[in-house]
Queue: 4 jobs
Job 1
Amino acid sequence: MFRAKGQSGKHLCPPVYGYKKSDTDKNLWVIDEPAAEVVRKIFKLCIDGYGPVQIARILTEQGIPTPTAYALSQGRDNGRHNAKTYRWGANTIAHILERYEYCGHTVNFRTKMKSYKVHKIVYNPQDEWQIFENTQEPIITQQTFDLVQELRKNKRRPQKCEIVNPFAGMVYCADCGEKMYLSRRKNERPEQEHMRCSTYAKKQDKCTVHYIRTCVLNEIVLGELNKLLTMVRENEEDFIQTAMSNSVQRKSSELTKAKKALKQAEKRIAELDKLFTRLYEDNVLGRLSDERFTMMSAGYEDEQTKLKATVAELTTLIDGAEQKSSDVTAFLKVVHRYEHIETLTPEIMHELVDKIIVHEPDKSSGKRVQDIEIHFRFDVAVSTISVETGKYGKKVA
């Protein structure tokens, strides 16, 4: 069967930064190690909590050549003659962080010419891309790429302080479900730094005034992570069975809801098709005025368009969940890299923890008791701790 070049898995564009053409096969991309090392550095900095603007500044300050400068130094002309060869840009960093090619895949039909008359490049929707997996050696792992995409979905405000807080973008209010933001002032002592509900900070009537100091959170999370490492080290089989059960139950519950919603949406779309037919017949036979027909059909059409969009989203969700194998093995690979964690870093947090949920403190006993939920990645486990947060950070006489 005839297949267009772009549909056969062959690259339709020159190698992206980090790759070069093979000396023996012009259709094969091979890793260009000096550039690939910079790509790995960019992904690592993103996982560490830095955004594109900060990463661009770091690379510029370290004197690392931009992709254009590097190409020119290798005797290659990438066509970007107006690019600034001495300074990295945030857009360049963002594009690198979004490239599937770094996982070893080929992506074709990402763009197209507006028309044969207007030679303007426009971007295609992602569902029109052609992605061919495992066509070249990967520069980064799929797990690293997926983690970065997750982080990029929840973009965080850059902090004035250069130190990246390991909890940034990961802590949520139990009452309103919104993120808790870091409050850090120059004149405050380190033990006064805290996370507070973003909803309450904006509209005090929409949530309650609950917060947690980062020194408290740090001690609690560090303790729970080391407990988990010990558990895996001493009884890995039991942990795998429990984690698999948690993951399967959670996915099963989500799938059941999604399939039910999909069935209802498809049923309603079929009903609307019948209603369209009846409306048309009534209009033709004179039982329904043209004005009434236009109004009713427009309403039905709008509803059906929205339902079809919902069906597409649910189908994607169900297909992805059913095809995805258990992530417990991937989680264990990360866990095995650590024997004991002394200090929390953004990388450790994003590799092991999905989110942290902070509840409002209970002061009914005269003490400040607070519940904290730590949701580990891939739904392998949830740790719920009830602690007297007021005693943390106090000096012992």
Job 2
Amino acid sequence: MNLLTASMRAAVAKTAAIAFFSFSATLALAQNSIFPLLPSSVSTIPANGDVNPYGVAFVPKNLPAGGGLQPGDILVSNFNNIENLQGTGTTILRVNGNGVTSTFFTSNQGGLTAALGVLSNGLVLVGNLPTADGTSATVQPGRLAIIDRNGNFLGTFGTLATVNGPWGMAIYDTGNGVSGTATVFLSNVLNGTVSRFTMTYNAAEVTATVTILADGFNHRLDPAALVLGPSGLAYVAATDTLYVASSADNAVYEITRATQPHSEPTHGTLFIQDFTHLHGPIDIAILQNGHFVIANSDGSNVDPNQPSELVEYTSTGQFVSQMSVDPNNGGAFGLAVNDLTSTVIRLAAVDDNANSLNMWTTIVH
């Protein structure tokens, strides 16, 4: 599937427009209702003034009815505080089904990252990478926190070996909305590893075993981007393959047998390396037809003619199309996709520069 029609590509090329999905076409062709539709863009600045949204996560559709989070809600984590210092933001914003925003959680540690996800019973996982002054000189390892569906902090998982700059997350959850087992993959940008947490959860407790699934990814501190290394993650259950976006070397790697036992950490195999279209790839979403949408942070391999790009590739890694979410560099970061029907998706992506969450609904062919 090409997310951009020919006319849309022409419009993007001429005007660098942000919106690129047709709501009217979706409504005409979808067999099931997709209401309520979210507004195309909402501000991600909470009451405390945090900026620089990073992570995006949809609340699972099988979450049972109850208080707090609801199915289809979107969560956005903020990395900077009101002074725009990197690694000092403390809030997770909630966007409900009507596009109304509220502060879901406020952490006592700063720098909430794109390592953000939600289990089927509403438990929220979020990583952070704090700094003392907004610079790479004071970066700290952070933690992996767990929060209930009402925004209450419950505790943390992992050690320094398994949680060291949590930067991206993917979740494979087989739960029923009340209890179950989930495999949580976590990229660590400070030591170049990917950790795997196998979690068992129910209404009363969560337990986890953890291992280092992969290591050896390029990583480094960077004065402008703060950190570069293994970032966004996406998992395909049908092939048991984990995909890792590497902002340090403009590549995407694949890890096979991702949920299976490994006698020692594996190394990712190069899947895509594209210096023409990748500019610090920071997050990945996979569509129903197997296509990849990759967000570029512009943290490396910067091209002023391709600012803040979302790039689409086929399931085999062939370039399809791209579009900019902001006319300046550094705007693209976290993104997530939610299947509304068998053919209709909602794609949500942050714009760090505008401090907004953009949402589009479209048909996947």
Job 3
Amino acid sequence: MTHTTDDLIWERWISLALMGGVVSSLLSIAVSDILFGISILLWLVHCWKRRKLSLKAPPFIAFLWAFLAAVLIAIVFSSDVLISALYLKKFIKFFYVFLIFTYLNRERVEYALKAMVMVLGISAGYGILQYFWLLDINLVNRIDGFMGHWMTFSGQLMLVSVALGGYLLFYQLPQTLAGGQDGTSQEAEKGERMGWLSREVLSLGAGSVLLALLLFVLVLTHTRSAWLGTMGGLLLLLSVYRVRWLLAAILILIALFFALPSGLKERFYSSFDLTDTTTRGRMELLLTAKNMIVAHPWTGLGPNMVSRRYQDYNETDEFETWLYQHLHNNFLQIAAEMGVITLLIWVALWVRLFWDFARFFRDPASDRFLSCLAMSGIGVLVAFLLAGLFEYNFGDSEILILLLFFITIPYVVHGGQEKGA
């Protein structure tokens, strides 16, 4: 990509619209889609002006193409091709990967991360108002921040909390302990080091307070899948940073659990109660998914067909239709709708990302920020996949946008580091 003054201006506007699309997904999917559309429009105009396609693909793109091919095959074999073809709208969101990898850089990535945390902090503050003053809270009416559903809100809290935890542990804290030095600059004078230290301490403290706020509000959402994902992601990060910290965190979690109000503890206990309505509903979905997969193992029922054909495979008529809107499990949903081969490709994508992020983290040539993003990416993936055992969060556009951002930015910074080497 050339870097004339005109190109730099176009790149700046495209990146601003792109970052706005990602960050605003925490507030409104409509605004996010508008800004994403603007970024695509600006990109098209920029390509037309240059008479050249300005687009780069990250190293994992082959897995996305394979996933798309498998989905297309599942659509062809669907009992209702037109309905299943509507699933392809989801793939528009995957264009975020190309634009992020092409137009963001290290500085823009860090700016987007900070904006994201601040915006979600505002949403979390509104969630507290909802819980204590604005809403009559129960299991069918929970806090949702600025989102339309508590599952989306809790998923956002989960992903951003884990990413923020990784940023604090692997970037902010080491930088604070190093006196503000990033490991690449020259040794500062003692007075300058003390100035950096005070600013870094304040930044670390502010980030820690925000993380505590996000986690507190996440507890208030009563969303067990997001609790599980967040704990898995954060505990993994702690185990990599300091095993002693992991043990301390587990003890703190146990103490906090016993200090929780009875309503929140009952919500946790109900996960193991086989007579609980929600638990029985999940078991029904598990059996229904099994029947679908056994009947259509290779290409599935077809995208968008689970909610339309569940009555051919369900085990009981006890539950209302709304229970079968999806299977509340990423793995089961993809296998049932698109077949086992599609599921294996989908899993292979995450394996590739885990492998690359671990390589970035262990590479001695990686600077602190890249190592932080790589480890945060691993934590985010763990959280997403764990929560996805009990919720079809891959089908949530707001969650997908955040996920695509977090899995692409390590490659952005890694690519920039290689260019600077």
Job 4
Amino acid sequence: MTTLLDVLPGMALRLSDVSKTLSRMWQSDAPHGSAEPSAFRASQMNLVLQFGLATPPDEAQRVFDQAIEFAQVYPCRIVALCPVKDANESLFVQAKLFSQCYIGPSTRQMCCCEALILGYPVNAAGFLENQVSVWLESDLPVYHWLHRVPARRIEELYLPYLKLCTRIVFDSCIEGADYAKTHWPKPETVMDLAYARLLPVRQSIGQFLSSYEPDALIAGLARVECRYAPGADGEAANLLRWQETCLDHCEKPGEHPDEVTFLAKPLAAASTNELEVEWQYDGGKKNFLWAHAKDCDGVRIKADFGKGAVDFPQHVKPIERVKELAEALFF
């Protein structure tokens, strides 16, 4: 049976040979006056990418490529963990080592990165804490990326290890709502990639609303809806929570504002939008609608907060994949 370990790129090695190969991998006879590749490999962190059994091979390749792109900008050692359902002795014999150097306009703009790709038994609770630690760069922070690892297995097997990580990231558009119910030992270290992707959206909405007084935004507000196209439910849930937090901050201490309903729901099948945000007010004299069109960067804002109606377009450029991961890991 083909596993993710078979699919991902790299040179097959026995585990006992990995450390020796790593120690000599970047050493070479560089031309006189030129720096060796090892001079361009200065890791800042460890990135552990843990796949779950349900990960399709093409999706695993896409996520792995994103990690490699990230390493070109933020030098790190990647440890990619590929699940094996029925573990046997051969699992602990084979691994893969991936390495590449990327050269810019000049050799001084070279970046060298490496990834260790290992199989792991999905039922072994101590594997991460005992085995993976051997392959990490010592004295550097560990960031952990979970991809299609079931929430129940995290609770049962992996929390002791994850509590040692600097940051844990996942994508709620892929994992669904189960991760939100997980009893993380340090919830402040857990970040959703769907929230990170919303950075341009939060900036778009925030910059527009910042021109109005907080009282004008919350007075009479009855309902906040975030509507989403298929596949964007994670972004919608995060965007709704962000709005609720921001509106809470608009309230003055000691005030008891009217109850506001916050709701995320699917868009109508005929809609040409990817995301919509609508605020509804008592009396219908005020309104706010933000709509992001599908497959383009176009946004439309329609609003009236009591000082006249506005209707204008905006341009919201999607965040790049590397910046999305950096936003989730570092901010």
